[in-house]
Amino acid sequence: MIFRFASLARLALALRGFALLAPPFATLLMREMKNKAPLFVLAGLVALLIGGALIFTGGQPTPPSPTLESAHQIRWFPLKSNLYSTRDGELGFRVFAATGDQKGSTERYLTHFDFGGGARLVDVIDVSTFEQLGTSDFYRDKTHLYQYYDMADGGRLSLYTDVEPSVDRESFVVLNDFYAKDKGRIYYHRGGWIREADPGSFIAMGESALAKDRHRYFLFGEAALPEAVLGYLQEICGLTGNEPAVVAECRSQAVQPRKSTAR
Q1: Using one digit for the tens of pLDDT, what is the confidence trace for 145-168?
Q2: Could you read off the pLDDT of 94-127 as tens digits, one per residue?
Q3: Domain boundary among 163, 186, 220
Q4: Is the distance from CB of 169 to CB of 145 less than 8 angstroms?
Q5: How far is CA 230 from the centre of its chain?
Q6: Are residues 41 and 81 in the same domain?
Q7: pTM of whole model > 0.85?
Q8: One domain for residues 136 and 91
Q9: How many domains does the chain have?
């Protein structure tokens, strides 16, 4: 907004300059034309008029104001699985950050791991084998496992071994957008290893944040009390009633909620 006001101010000064300088220059130009002055003399007079007006704007023309979108279109080019590249070979992971003015979000490109303090993506990621695991926040290439952690400012991309050093990349599979597992552990997409979960009997229920093993239910990666499970099932299945009826009807739908509840 400040830049816009500055541009308007420069335009006003330029118009003022033309208004002050145009009358005497017009008189001089007409006289030289009547005297059949050489073309370069006439061109020089016009240049003096323009230059004089620019003096009122500080000697510099007002630069263009490219939009954020056009800047992205010029610089970043899509590769695969949210990876983008610049013409000079920089690698970026596209995210969306809140603008703070309640007008939505804007694109950002993470070029380093861990909030910008880690290694450059281009030095670590193998683009040819990089892929998103389903629609989850997990990614993988031939060497590493990655986790994207969404936040209002755009979040971070991390090597998942930095978050969970014991994770087994080879056996790692995504169960849904909330849960994943390897040969010995269960993971919540934002909270990491769920220590209470039994890998042998763990089941992610549909595409919801609800899961269970032979001992307990889990909700958003944490052990859940029956009343919490009931409330969640009522919300995602659009049901009302007492606990047995709600659970039975929701289970009969294979726990495939009509709407996704994210956290």
Answers
A1: 999 999 998 999 999 999 999 999
A2: 999 988 766 778 889 999 998 878 899 999 999 9
A3: 163
A4: yes
A5: 34
A6: no
A7: no
A8: yes
A9: 3
